[in-house]
Amino acid sequence: MAKPRAGLPGNSGHMHVSIVDKSGSNLFYRGSKDPNPPYQDLAHLSDIGRHFLAGLLDGLPDVMPIVAPIINSYKRLVENFWAPVTVSWGLEHREASIRLIAPPTASPKAVRFEVRVAGADANPFLVLAAILGLGWRGVEKKMEIKVPPLSKGEDVGGASDKGERLAKSLKEATAKMMSEGSVAREVFGNEFVEHFGGTREHEVRLWDEAVTDWEVKRYIETV
Questions:
Q1: Would the pLDDT of 158 be above 90?
Q2: 31 CB contacts (<8 Å, ≥6 apart)?
Q3: Against a cut of 0.90, is the pTM above it?
């Protein structure tokens, strides 16, 4: 489970991603520092890496049922528990949805993204497929990063965070994924989205019908 105990941080399923060429060279490393990057955090990230990051940021809200697939997933993705709750990124930012790892704090061969949204309850194969699909969509479309990075010390979800708030429930996330024209439909195709989304809608229906221990303890003798 992503959140087995209330009042404590949850269990994550962070995934680190980089791409190398046939010779083993890291394609996310720029080679030489960019003197005029759009954001200083990107100074050592290649153009491919920038487009890949832009694709991740653009599509993340539409694939939430993949990286957070069950009701309990969203108990982990709440404020004040070091969990990513917005479309956010930053160099070595350990609360953002995507942590960029690059020089000067890492070696050129170690340049990568740590995608921090997925929990321990996610299917790692589907998560990796989503990351690669969204990232490569950004590369093919030469997408630009629209969200400024969070600096160290800036809180996710705080006043300086300009990123979209991610879905707060499986129901909200599934509706967004299954909406007409979603990025998930573009990347995975309608057949997958309809099937996988249907399984998540079934999960939501079961939850809506459930009577939990919390409800019984809180209301049985008072209402």
A1: no
A2: 46
A3: yes
